[in-house]
Automatic annotation (TrEMBL):
MF annotations from Gene Ontology: ATP binding; phosphoribosyl-AMP cyclohydrolase activity; phosphoribosyl-ATP diphosphatase activity
A Pfam family per the record: PRA-PH
Name of the protein: Histidine biosynthesis bifunctional protein HisIE
Alphabetized UniProt keyword annotations: Amino-acid biosynthesis, ATP-binding, Cytoplasm, Histidine biosynthesis, Hydrolase, Multifunctional enzyme, Nucleotide-binding
Highest taxon in the source lineage: Bacteria
Family recorded in the similarity comment: In the N-terminal section; belongs to the PRA-CH family. In the C-terminal section; belongs to the PRA-PH family.
GO CC field: cytoplasm
Gene3D superfamilies linked: MazG-like, Phosphoribosyl-AMP cyclohydrolase
CDD domains according to UniProt: NTP-PPase_HisIE_like
Length: 204
């Protein structure tokens, strides 16, 4: 990944996004050395324009941000960096530098879907090793996955009528999990379903 540091006098803006919730946490600046240190150390590192040196986010507060991944924009002069914060991000004590709560449960769905996609890619590929549960479902095919969705749907209905809350929620979790697997077996993700729902809403 080639970044155009020269355009900004050696610096590029770095937008930090929570890898789990997809919330934008803060904006900082990086030079080439800061980016390389971020990758090698696993901790988000910026270049301080006021102190004229590298600084590790959290070096004073202890609220570090763990590096997950990085993308460049289309002009190669700005970065989107995914991270996992270990505490409040802003010096004010807020979750983000925009005074927002860093909560978005749907962000975990993306992580879960990435794991399912990885299991699908590697299903039946590792000789001598037992497939994971998800990989084994992909090996057995769509019919087996669809059957599991049906079974979980029935169990969810049963718990909805007479079951305690914890069992009802657990069955819903099982149903959603297997639905995500079935979607990927057909080449889709949950966002494709959400797009259909959004289109229906907008057409009313």
């Amino acid at each position: 990944m080639k970044i155009d540091f020269e355009k900004g006098g050696g610096l590029v803006p770095a937008i930090i996004q929570d890898a789990e919730t997809a919330k934008v946490l803060m904006l900082g600046y990086m030079n080439e050395e800061a980016l390389e240190k971020t990758k090698s150390s696993g901790k988000i590192t910026f270049f301080s324009r006021s102190k004229n040196r590298l600084w590790v986010k959290g070096e004073q507060s202890g609220n570090f941000m763990e590096f997950v991944g990085v993308k460049a924009d289309c002009d190669k002069d700005a970065l989107l960096i995914q991270a996992r914060p270990t505490g409040p991000v802003c010096h004010t004590g807020s979750d983000t530098c925009w005074e927002e709560e860093n909560q978005n449960p749907l962000g975990f769905i993306n992580t879960l879907e990435d794991i399912i996609a990885d299991r699908k890619r590697n299903a039946g590929q590792e000789q001598g090793k037992k497939d994971s549960y998800v990989s084994s479902l992909f090996v057995k095919g769509k019919a087996k996955i669809a059957q599991k969705v049906g079974e979980e749907a029935v169990e969810t209905v049963i718990e909805a009528l007479d079951g305690p809350d914890d069992l009802f929620l657990n069955e819903n979790a099982d149903l959603l999990f297997h639905q995500l697997i079935l979607l990927q077996a057909r080449g889709f993700r949950l966002n494709d379903v959400l797009r259909v729902l959004k289109d229906r809403h907008n057409s009313r």
